[in-house]
Specification:
The chain has 274 residues and is α/β, with parallel strands linked by helices. It contains eleven helices and seven strands. It is 46% helix and 13% strand. It has a four-stranded parallel beta sheet, with helices on both faces. It has a three-stranded mixed beta sheet with strand order 5-6-7. Strand 2, helix 3 and strand 3 form a beta-alpha-beta unit. Helix 1 (3-20) packs across helix 2 (31-44), helix 1 (3-20) packs across helix 8 and helix 2 (31-44) packs parallel to helix 3.
């Protein structure tokens, strides 16, 4: 991927948005949806763009803060709605297709808003996502949600490159899936568990943990995943004490630092100690 390639793909995105004329974006404030919203406003103007955030217990406060900051900086019109996927027993049971029920709830709420505005309903799915297992994508297809980043051929690397060029602060932000992704499949999703994970991750950020971070919930035990280049730093005696104390303050009785480091889909990995 080169900067020239990414710019060419961005031009494809601009052309797609121009044909759509008016869009409603499922907006989390992550790398992809932040970039998409910024380009949409730049292309169509604020009157033809609405970025809608679905807020629930599974949506991290830190992500919400970034979503607001980007919207304010780039003049993105926003709307916040409450979603209640956790009341859906199918979602709360935490099956492997949990994301399908979450996205079904989101698009069910957003579809009538888009229809009322005469807008195309779009999401931040990128070209790399097509090669991953994403049950939530089926919910979008069922509701006719378009993915313009895919149509333009934009990968995550392209999006980071163009976000950097545009001065969008999310360009180097770690990926931030919902908090439920920290709970192993089959373990019910509850508000208390989500809040515990969020408190633990916020505590670790507060003491200086950077990069990708996941606190995986295993009952009274928290398994901490860090980027591999961060492991040596946080496994020194003094830093490890601080790390474990930050997690215990969130309500966990014991803490394991995973020697394998951060990886996507790691919630179902077995417990192992560094």
């Amino acid at each position: 991927m080169t900067a020239v390639d990414a710019l060419g793909k961005e031009r494809n995105l601009i052309a797609w948005l121009g044909q759509a004329r008016s869009v409603l974006i499922g907006y989390s404030g992550g790398v992809d949806s932040a970039y998409l919203a910024c380009v949409a406003v730049d292309t169509l103007g604020p009157d033809r763009v609405l970025a809608v955030t679905g807020r629930s217990a599974s949506y991290p406060d830190s992500q919400w803060a970034m979503a607001r900051a980007v919207a304010e900086q780039f003049g993105i019109p926003t709307l916040v709605i409450d979603t209640d996927e956790i009341s859906d027993r199918r979602y709360a049971a935490n099956p492997e297709n949990r994301c399908y029920f979450c996205k079904t709830e989101l698009w069910h709420r957003l579809e009538p808003i888009a229809r009322q505005r005469g807008a195309v309903l779009i999401d931040g799915t990128n070209a790399d996502d097509l090669g991953e297992h994403r049950p939530g994508a089926a919910a979008g297809r069922e509701r006719g949600v378009a993915s313009p980043l895919v149509h333009a051929g934009l990968t995550k690397g392209d999006i980071r490159e163009r976000s950097r060029a545009r001065g969008i602060p999310t360009w180097n932000q770690p990926s931030a899936p919902c908090l439920a992704s920290r709970i192993p499949h089959g373990t019910p999703v509850t508000v208390g568990r989500l809040q515990g994970v969020e408190r633990a991750e916020s505590g670790l950020r507060a003491i200086g943990v950077v990069g990708n971070l996941r606190v995986r919930h295993h009952g009274e035990t928290a398994r901490v995943e860090l980027d591999r280049d961060q492991l040596d730093r946080w496994l020194t005696p003094a830093n490890r004490v601080a790390l474990e104390e930050a997690v215990r303050q969130a309500g966990y009785a014991s803490v394991i630092v995973d020697p394998a480091g951060y990886r996507t889909g790691g919630a179902d990995a077995p417990l192992s100690r560094a």
